[in-house]
Specification:
Number of domains: 2
Mean pLDDT: 90
Number of strands: 8
Structural class: alpha/beta
Low-confidence stretches: none
CATH architecture of the largest domain: Roll
Helix content: 10-25%
Distance between the termini: 38 Å
Radius of gyration: 15 Å
Order of helices and strands: EHEEEEHEEE
CATH superfamily of the largest domain: 2,3-Dihydroxybiphenyl 1,2-Dioxygenase, domain 1
Strand content: 35-45%
Length: 125
Amino acid sequence: MRIKQQLVVFDAADLDAESRFWAGVLGGTVDADDDWHTVSVDGEPRMAVQLAPDHVRPEWPHGNPQQIHLDLWVDDIDSAHQHVTALGAELLKAADENDEPDAFQVYADPAGHPFCLCWVRPGQR
């Protein structure tokens, strides 16, 4: 079996907010249909948003279960945090203070899907 294309698809009641958010995070564009938006980067489809009028926002870490989450590795957590929150992300959990070389913070996109911004702490690797 050969897979020709792979997309992560998010369900959302508000297609415009969700697709604009992810296009902003990834530096991409949105190709919008009535019930499906594709987010492309450099002309290549990277993810999509499907209309789900009855979508129930996940409540992380307890409550309505999360359906999926993305880990996005960044070089500069401060600028990445500012970027995603300006686009509408909500910080759900700040990084723990520990001696681990890898760190992460948990956010929610406009539809409530959790995602993580991850990074290697300076001087750790």
